[in-house]
Amino acid sequence: MPTPTVPHAAEQPSASPAVADEATTIATSVVTAFCRPTLDFQTWINGLYPYLSQTAAVAYETVNPARVPCTAVTGAARVRDGDGTFTVRVIVPTNGGDYSVYVHRTEVTGPWLVEQITPLAGE
């Protein structure tokens, strides 16, 4: 059986303008909700829930918002990579550094949900 090859960056599918707009919009919204370290936990997590997948919601229930190092989005989000249809990684700049946000949907017409929000420097 042949070994599958990983496409080079230039061969990676790119997101259509509509997908890029949808993905960057949800990524910006979730990072805006995430970068609120002065909120109490319940208010903070309730602000994230509408954007998160079930798996991500469980994971982010373990985060102490007081330890989040950002307080604001500082620029336009941009698509970094992904399959262009179901999973897109978006970079969102904040005053605490850039954040990488993985957004995913299970159907072409399904809603985008956030799977992960991580500091880009930590990847």
TrEMBL record:
It comes from the Bacteria. This is Uncharacterized protein. It comes from Subtercola boreus. The lineage of its organism: Bacteria, Bacillati, Actinomycetota, Actinomycetes, Micrococcales.
